[in-house]
Amino acid sequence: MHGTLRMSERYRLLLVDDDVQLLLSLGDRLRRDGYEVATAKSGAEAIEALDVTWPDLVILDLAMPRMSGEDVARQVKKRADIPIIVLSIITAPEVKVDAISRFAEDYLTKPYHHEELVARIQRVLGRLNERIPSQELVLGPELTLVLRRREAVVAGRTVGLSPTETRFLATLAASGGEPVSTERLLARVWGDADGADPAYVWVTVRRLRRKLECDPDHPRHLLTDRGGGYRLTAAESASPPTAV
Fold it and tell me: 61 by DSSP, 3-state: which?
């Protein structure tokens, strides 16, 4: 339905491990917990699965033959900023630190307690839900945002989005159509940057309008609010997008 933001209520997980029995047992338990689950028993299968079942989160073993978990993580991050939880038999502190510093949201060692794993999944997905909508955001017949993949479909043409542009749009989408101030955008999008300047905001807005709007000089979706700030709207009704 045009004029509405559509979001999936069920999260999709991808389990990657060369232990087939673990994939079966863990996959079944997570499905009973309410998740959609895809599995891959090798790095190559994991990369293929990304293009078939785009996950909200990857649970990844590090010690796999042929294609290591680190190589899988590198390929995942090339495609999109999908969060990764490492589930590995490797307990060395330096390996944990390295994984978390480079690609992992969390690290859990085997053997593990299922309840602890679920708690960590919920924590990571809770943070994710605040940042990036999990499914397509349909703002009108000519614009769909697929922020998990850092893409937009503009009049049938796929356009890539940078990580900064993705965070910017996600912050606006999370506001439910209410204007978001320049100060808040700076804090949410450039919070880790030294000396972030308000000019960052209007430069990003200008760049996004060129990418997303059919007529950048007369935008229909990325609007400047009269009271200050910016908001994202569904074009047909010019009303706040609604999650369904």
Answer: coil
What value does the CA radius of gyration of the chain take, rounded to a whole number of Å? 19
| Helical segments of 33-110, H only | 43-52, 69-79, 93-102
Residue-wise pLDDT tens digits, 102-142: 888 889 999 999 999 999 998 887 765 555 666 788 898 89
Nearest to 221 by CA among 156, 140, 155: 140
Decide: 174 and 7 in contact? Cβ < 8 Å: no
Residue 94's domain is classified under what CATH number?
A: 3.40.50.2300
d(CA 172, CA 44): 36
The model's pTM: 0.57
Place of tokens 């989005």: 161
Enumerate residues 6+ apart whose C-beta is below 8 A from 233. 139, 177, 220, 221, 223, 239, 240, 241
Tokens matching residue 76: 């995942």
- Token digits of residue 179: 């204007």
Final residue before a domain boundary, out of 131, 159, 188: 131
Residue 148 DSSP class: G
Number of domains in the chain: 2
Amino acid in the structure at residue 14:
L
Task: Provide the residue type at 139 as one letter.
Answer: L
